[in-house]
Amino acid sequence: MSTLRPGGRRFPRSVYGVGTEPDPRFSLANERTFLAWIGVALAVFSVAVGIESLAVNLEPTLRTSASLVLMVAGLGCAAQAWWGWRSVERALRLSQPLPGPRPGLWLTAALSLVGVLLLASVVLS
């Protein structure tokens, strides 16, 4: 039996190789938040595909633009899931303050832009 250093073989070492093991409840809550962001990303991707494939009566350029904005927003949500989980887990392990919510502004801006594009598409068709 070997003794592993903190973090051992767990991935990513940049998270598990620092600090001390936090209360499991906090780590599990952080994981649930990660999964919620993944769910949001999948929902945003689904709306993008739905707009592009089902909204045939909308002006094509604006419809495609709205779908592309949603695809980028979905990628941003997936990236936020990872980076948010990583930064919160590190903060928990190092007994540092939790990072503030970063995705709110860009997600609001992306969804507002999609709303404007779809509204313009409806008006122009």
UniProtKB/TrEMBL annotation:
Which spans are transmembrane here?
34-56, 68-85, 105-124
* Pfam families to which the protein is assigned, alphabetical: DUF202
What GO cellular-component annotations does this UniProt entry give?
endomembrane system
Where would I find the DUF202 domain in this sequence?
A: 25-91
Membrane topology value: Multi-pass membrane protein
* Compartmental location: Endomembrane system
Please classify the protein's predominant subcellular localization into one broad category. Answer: membrane
Name the source's superkingdom.
Bacteria
Q: Which UniProt keywords apply?
A: Membrane, Transmembrane, Transmembrane helix
Presence of keyword 4Fe-4S: no
Q: What is this protein called?
A: DUF202 domain-containing protein
Where does this protein come from, organism-wise?
A: Kineosphaera limosa NBRC 100340
